[in-house]
Write a structure and sequence with these properties.
Largest sheet: none
Radius of gyration: 17 Å
Structural class: mainly alpha
Order of helices and strands: HHH
Oligomer: single chain
Shape: flat
Distance between the termini: 42 Å
Helix content: 55-70%
Number of helices: 3
């Protein structure tokens, strides 16, 4: 088992954080699920995914604590 350089760990953490707040990670998870559930069908584009996500949020509002 190798130990990661502290700089490498920091950069990986920053990359993870940026992917989470930008929505890139959500879209990639969506693509993996879509491919599993709909094999052979083309995966929706990121733009189509964002439109669907926005419509879903508007139709199903959730309360927030803050």
């Amino acid at each position: 088992m190798s130990t990661l350089n502290p700089l490498t760990r920091l950069l990986r953490g920053i990359r993870w954080y940026l992917r989470e707040i930008s929505g890139t990670a959500d879209y990639e998870r969506h693509c993996r699920r879509y491919e599993e559930q709909h094999p052979g069908e083309p995966v929706p584009t990121r733009r189509a995914y964002e439109r669907h996500r926005s419509r879903h949020r508007e139709a199903n509002p959730q309360s927030r604590c803050c």
